[in-house]
Amino acid sequence: MKKERFICPYTVYDHLEELDPSDAELLRFAHDAARNAYAPYSKFNVGAAVRLANGAVVLGNNIENAAYPSGLCAERVAMFAAMAQYPGVPFEALAVTAWSATKAIDEPVAPCGACRQVMVEVEQVSQRPLRVLCQGDTGPVMVFDGVESLMPFIFLDKFL
């Protein structure tokens, strides 16, 4: 038997102002998207913004439904919309933020497992690492320089 450990490399910035201006702008877009989320049940608004290689920014937010499995996360809304509107254009970065009317969210919010798996596919199609930025409504920003840091032991198309 051999015991191993996975190390998840990421960078933490204390404030939005410490980021590269293009990353800070992308997070601001995600914050705006979160304010427009449809989250009447959880009151947990998530916003996402995708920056493509052509400079386009595509927004997404979570959309809830009374039949809970029928909703969709902000990250997938943004990624699917970007793929539909700009087919074949590689992704550069994805920013995710969250806001709640019922409590302060002052730490980074990471994507769920389903969104991470879609990010794996996006990264494979783009043939480059996807930069992922996570923040709450305020507070520090976590930056991942590729999806593998967020999701070890990824499922790839080569397994099919």
Short synopsis of the structure:
With 160 residues, this protein is α+β, with helices and mostly antiparallel strands. The protein has 3 helices and 6 strands.
Word description of this protein:
This protein is of the alpha+beta class and 160 residues long. It has helices at residues 21-35, 74-85, 113-126, and strands at 11-13, 44-52, 57-61, 91-100, 131-135, 141-144. A 6-stranded mixed beta sheet has the order 1-6-5-4-2-3. It is globular and about 45 Å long. The mean pLDDT is 95.
SSE blueprint:
Blueprint: E1 11-13, H1 21-35, E2 44-52, E3 57-61, H2 74-85, E4 91-100, H3 113-126, E5 131-135, E6 141-144
Parallel strand pairs: 4-5
Antiparallel strand pairs: 1-6, 2-3, 2-4, 5-6
Largest sheet: 6 strands, mixed
Nearest-angstrom radius of gyration? Answer: 15 Å
Chain-averaged pLDDT: 95
Number of strands: 6
Structural class based on helices, strands and sheet pairing: alpha+beta
Which characteristics define this entry?
single chain; alpha+beta; 6 strands; 22% strand
